[in-house]
Amino acid sequence: MWAAEVGPGRDIRVKGGLVLIEGAPVPDVVLDPADGRQLWRSPGTTTKQVRLFDDVVLISYDSETVMLERKTGAELWRTPEVVTVQEGTLVQEGSGRTWSVPDPRTGVAKWATARDEFSNATVAAKLVLITQDQDGPGDTVTAYDLVTGAQG
Fold first, then answer.
1. Is the peptide bond before 43 cis (omega within 30 degrees of 0)?
2. What pLDDT is stored for residue 13 in this prediction?
3. Beta carbons of 144 and 150 less than 8 angstroms apart
4. How far apart are CA 7 and CA 143, in angstroms?
5. CA neighbor of 120 nearest in space, from 107, 108, 129
6. What is the pLDDT at residue 143?
7. What does the pLDDT read at residue 85?
8. Residues of the chain with pLDDT under 70
9. What are the C-alpha distances in Å from 104 to residues 6, 66, 113, 136?
10. Domains and CATH numbers, the chain
């Protein structure tokens, strides 16, 4: 067995074969569950969300989202935009008024669609459902194919 010093006021989570030690004011730490050795530290201190996605780790900070290689912590890409993991899919809310489904390793959009200011995206049943708040009673929901982005 093993023991590791993690500092005060820290949250400990085990996800995807990694031990995540989270909590400000110091960077998040990722430990190997087999021996407790530190694998890597996150590049920031004010983490809002840590999510595992395939072989990458998504870390959301106050002003950006960073994708890191799961085993080494090497940065793959970063964006000032909000990226979430829903039903095993990355969804990016673009500041340029778009919704997109980015590739987890490159950040390049597999597909994107325009969005209005007051909209929301939800992944369900192999679809991306985008709700749009319209003036008056006529709000809309539009379904897009998760893989291709085809409207249908």
1. no
2. 77
3. yes
4. 46
5. 129
6. 92
7. 85
8. 8-9, 23-26, 44-47, 96, 117, 134, 136
9. 29, 10, 18, 37
10. 11-80 (2.40.10.480), 81-152 (2.40.10.480)
Contacts of residue 141, Cβ cutoff 8 Å, sequence gap at least 6: 129, 130, 131, 132
Residue 75 phi, psi (nearest 5): -70, 130
How many other C-beta atoms are found inside a 10 Å radius of the C-beta of residue 65?
Answer: 23
Instruction: Give the length of the chain.
Output: 152
| pLDDT tens-digit map of 7-36 | 766 778 777 778 877 765 667 788 888 998
The tokens for 46 are 């004010």
What pTM was computed for the model?
Answer: 0.77
Amino acid present at 79: T
Cβ partners under 8 Å of residue 24, min gap 6:
45, 46, 47
Strands 82-86 and 75-79: unpaired
Evaluate the omega torsion of the peptide bond into residue 25 and state whether it is cis, within 30 degrees of 0: yes
- In terms of Cα–Cα distance, which of 74, 72, 44, 71 is closest to 59? 44
pLDDT digits (tens, 9 = 90+) for 53-67: 778 888 887 778 899
Q: Residue 46 and residue 144: Cα distance in Å, rounded?
A: 34
Residues 6+ apart with CB under 8 A from 121: 86, 91, 93, 99, 115, 128, 129, 130, 131
